[in-house]
Predict the structure.
Amino acid sequence: MNQVIETILSRRSVRSFTEEPLKKEDLEIIAKAASYAPSGMNQQSWHFTVLTDKVKIQKLADAIAEVLGREGYNFYKPQALIIPSNKPDSAWGRDDNACALQNIFLAAHSLGIGSVWINQLCGICDNEKIRPILSELNVPENHIVYGLAALGYPKAEGKLHERKGVIDFI
Ligand SMILES: Cc1cc2nc3c(=O)[nH]c(=O)nc-3n(C[C@H](O)[C@H](O)[C@H](O)COP(=O)(O)O)c2cc1C
């Protein structure tokens, strides 16, 4: 099996991370992989914020906790967040960002880094407690975050889920 297929088939969501910081060069290549995702009509209307400052990560988590009523929320205590955003009026912004996120997950896994999709910002970006924090993180004012990636070295492996038999060859 070639390495790309092996990476795709062995990736799983990781929700427990070690305290070891991620290397800047790894985050750079993961973010670069994100920006090489396909995008509808090559619009590339996305923006990526790479955040490693733990205080800022928890500040965002605290605001999410307050808005969603989820006391103790912490994104699973990652070493980094990569926050793709996009224009809400882009016809394919959500799809483009999902492609970018999958590139993030696969690139991270290929480097021994665990990751998971975080959905909690979806729908609350324009909340008065959230938007100012996103602006501090250089997320463009007119952008929405559909999903983001939490990353770190895996403390515990995620469960490798059985895949359902949904493929027919005719
Ligand atoms: C659109 C979407 C939203 C998700 N949101 C979350 C989330 O908010 N928190 C979380 O822990 N996992 C989230 N996940 C991860 C899924 O739970 C995970 O992909 C699924 O259980 C299959 O496991 P696997 O990624 O290990 O194959 C999300 C995945 C997708 C595609």
Residues 12-13, 15, 116-120, 147, 158, 161 surround flavin mononucleotide (CB under 6 Å). DSSP finds five helices and four strands in the chain.
